[in-house]
Design goal:
Blueprint: E1 5-9, H1 14-26, E2 30-36, H2 43-46, E3 51-53, H3 56-60, E4 67-70, H4 77-86, E5 90-94, H5 101-114, E6 118-121, H6 128-139, E7 145-153, H7 163-166, H8 174-190, E8 195-201, E9 212-219, E10 223-230, E11 240-244, E12 247-251, H9 257-262, E13 281-286, E14 292-297, H10 305-317, H11 325-335
Parallel strand pairs: 1-2, 1-4, 2-3, 4-5, 5-6, 7-10
Antiparallel strand pairs: 7-11, 8-9, 9-10, 11-12, 12-13, 13-14
Helix pairs in contact: 4-5, 8-11
Amino acid sequence: MDQPIVTALLAYGMSGKVFHAPFLATNPGFSFYAVLERHQQKAVLDYPEVKSFASISELLQDDTIELVVVNTPNNTHFELAQMALEAKKHVLIEKPATTTPEEFKMLLALAEQVGRKVFVYQNRRWSSDFLATKSVIASGKLGDIIEVHLRFDRYRASIGAKTFKETPIPSSGIWYDLGAHLVDQAISVFGTPESHYRYKNSYRNNSQVDDYAFMHLEFPKKINVFITTSMLVADAQVGIVIHGTKGSFIKAFCDEQENQLVEGMSPLSDSFGIEKPYREGKLTYYDANQQLIVETIPSLKGNFNGLFDALYESIRKQKPFPVDNEAIKSQLELLV
């Protein structure tokens, strides 16, 4: 393997601690080198060798750093990614990439100007349930797809402590937070929609941002995708439902990687990414003899590390990154 990519995180909250640091520290393609920590130096407790910077300017002046992970509040993504690119660093930006498509296009133009790359962190493409769903679609057993339902539900009736998520600033609210995952999954499978309709609103007491959102996307070949996300679902609904001309597939929202990372499991563990028992999907379809077939479909092993492997291949070997930036432009146009 070529030289590991020297990488810095711009925050060490939940995103940095759970979704980035464990992979940067264990994936041989990366050297977890630095963290921006303006107040408390917490990263060193988990990673004693990591360097802590108190200011973004100081971090960006370090020529050792090749890649900067922009995992800060949504409304800061554009400014910080712009600063990192101007310092001639590659950037990996948490979803949503920016608050508007125009901002993202500006980052891409700047990246081309300085000879660096922009990547967007859409880890749910590597979730176990979604990987299983893609395999079922690819099998052809559903026939032509007619209807897809994607849900991401939670029950959090109280207003959260993270003000950047609960204050009416650009890219706050559940649609940008959770809806971005589902829109990206739909685009990654079906391409760019031909039309769409969206509704969002607030239902929690004293909520200043949307905590419920719904979108209907119509894709080529008359494929309909319905996306729903809510903060007030006490009994979380099935996350994936697909109906086609030959069959149906139903799958619970069940990826375990986040839970395992929160509990401290290493991505190198043999158990990492494996779903809990009795969470298999149900595939019901008619075969060529018009016989009704029912199959149990286990999830594939979840693999957030696949994103980092692809990131390494793109930076070091110039291979295409699977989260295409043209798709990100389409995603942002649907989020605004």
